[in-house]
Write a structure and sequence with these properties.
The protein has about 240 residues and is α+β, with helices and mostly antiparallel strands. Helix content is about 40%, strand content about 15%. The chain has a 4-stranded antiparallel sheet. Strands 5-6 form a two-stranded antiparallel ribbon. A hairpin with a 4-residue loop joins strand 5 and strand 6.
Amino acid sequence: MIDYAKGRDQLSESDKSWLIQNGVSIDIVDALDSRSVATSGVFVDPDYAKSQMKQTRELFQNTGSTEAMRVIQSFSHADLDPTNPADWQRCNDLGNELAQKMAPDHQVAVYTHLDGTGHKLHNHIIVNMPNLKPGKKYHHQNDFKRLSKLNDEVALAHGLSIIDREQAPAKRRTMAECQLKAKNEYVWKDDLRGRIDKIMGDATMSSYKDFSERLVRSGIIYNFSTTEVKTSHTSF
């Protein structure tokens, strides 16, 4: 997790070329040797976070299956410009601020990236599980609502935009799916939604059994015990 977030020697040549093509100084780009373009830490040195966090877990005898938690915090181009090196540090500062709100008294390392499709600035926030005072683990189950609220507080304090979660959620597509849609190519999630919406919209459906049978006839295979839904591309 930390190795990926740090990304030493892993900023691709295509990302470097993209930065240069968009006006970033060649000297600045040449100095980049990691996927993370800005780093910081709370009670930890981000360059040595992996070993320091491990020592803390051993100190508190906190060596369970979950060693650390990762939170990804991203920003739109309207708020932070990935071609502006000053915004790289600003992004990291915002991640550090969120880290201190979400996990006080925990070791946290913040790594800022700008690579990936769309080149949005985003932080990988790595939280070590033990609290430095009582040594208890960070409670992270069902934590999305609290973290969203804290992130909104940080964004509002700095005049940045926030997501209106009171509105009905839109049908979301990944960047790759948007690109496929723009080319009029097959997007499996849209296909799956369409099949389910068609079945749900049929007023003659009268029971869960009927619903299940129609899913199967439509080529949708589902696992009720895990609420996982899959579609078979071979049964159109």
